[in-house]
Specification:
Layout: H1 4-16, H2 19-25, H3 30-44, E1 49-52, E2 55-58, H4 60-87, E3 91-97, H5 99-102, H6 106-116, E4 120-126, H7 129-137, E5 143-147, E6 155-163, E7 166-169, E8 179-180, H8 182-185, E9 190-192, H9 198-209, E10 217-219, H10 223-231, E11 237-239, H11 245-249, E12 254-255, E13 257-258, E14 265-272, H12 278-296
Parallel strand pairs: 3-4, 3-5, 8-13, 9-10
Antiparallel strand pairs: 1-2, 5-14, 6-14, 7-11, 7-12
Helix pairs in contact: 1-2, 1-3, 1-4, 2-3, 6-12
Length: about 300
């Protein structure tokens, strides 16, 4: 049976051209190196080196096997690096997240992190994507789950998930049992994400294109506030139905039949890469798996 000590000996004898030099490199004796090479040759039933008056050289088969030996040692090194890196997921991670994810799958991620990496402390910051990007750029957070791709060449990113948007209203507005035009919706104040958000700007464009010159749009950075205002019948809103599933099932809120709706929210994990970003990359990859599992549930 071949072991890594034998493979190490084979590679270094081939690289350095002598058993003595390989023994010095591996901090062992020349007889030990000779024994390892002999055992490897016996296990493989082939000669690896030709011994002669001028020294040693690889046989044709030994030359062919050398590249395989190099790959095996590289894989061993990678495996050890991964094993050590898992233990390095510790300390404090400053994680920023959009509120939509708080209401969908973020709690699953936090639970997984607690189970897999008990030495890691997560400091959670919940805010709008606009604010989180600024905090990331200022190094006030380490990782941000935000809407849209990176806006800076310094940012690395992983795609997480996508949530469709919809027009939502309280049944008291009596808009839910028929097709509704944008002109009809324009008679109400529209409640949605803050002014700097993609949905806000998309709604503004849709209403203006429908002939509403001065649309009333109430933007809020608080998703809970948007939901409460919609429940009270102040006006229809545009949000992701995924965050109000219970309210929809209970009939407290309804998805409206409107021809045009702003594009879906695409979420990405973003961070600024450094030589010490292993923990951030590990959490980002785990978040991607959690988000995809939630999407399939």
């Amino acid at each position: 049976m071949i072991d890594f000590k034998q493979i190490d000996a084979f590679v270094w004898v081939a690289e350095l051209g002598s058993f003595r030099a390989a023994a010095e490199k591996l901090n062992t004796t020349q007889p030990a190196i000779s024994q390892r090479i002999a055992a490897m040759e016996k296990a493989m039933t082939t000669r690896l080196f030709e011994r002669g008056a001028r020294g040693i050289k690889l046989t044709d088969k030994g030359q062919e096997l050398l590249s395989h030996a190099h790959r095996m040692l590289e894989l061993r090194s990678e495996m050890l690096t991964v094993a050590k890196a898992q233990n390095a997921v510790r300390g404090t991670l400053r994680l920023g997240s959009s509120e939509t994810l708080v209401h969908t799958w973020l709690h699953h991620l936090i639970d997984d992190l607690h189970q897999k990496y008990p030495a890691l402390v997560v400091e959670l910051h919940v805010d709008t994507s606009h604010v989180l990007r600024a905090q990331l750029a200022a190094h006030q957070i380490d990782l941000a789950f935000v809407v849209g791709r990176p806006q800076s060449p310094k940012e690395c990113h992983l795609y997480l998930c996508e949530y469709e948007l919809a027009w939502i209203a309280s049944p008291r507005l009596k808009l839910h049992r028929k097709p509704v035009t944008l002109t009809e919706l324009g008679a109400y104040p529209i409640i949605t994400y803050p002014t700097v958000s993609q949905p806000y700007q998309a709604i503004k464009t849709l209403l203006e294109e429908a002939g509403i010159k001065t649309p009333r749009i109430y933007g809020s950075a608080s998703l809970s506030t948007i939901v409460q205002m919609t429940l009270r019948g102040i006006g229809p809103s545009v949000i992701a139905p995924a965050v109000i599933r219970e309210e929809i099932l209970e009939g407290k809120l309804c998805v409206l039949n409107v021809e045009k709706t702003p594009e879906a929210l695409g979420f990405h994990a973003c961070w600024i890469d450094t030589p010490h970003s292993h923990t951030v990359r590990t959490v980002a990859r785990l978040a991607q798996r959690v988000a995809q599992a939630a999407a399939q549930a």
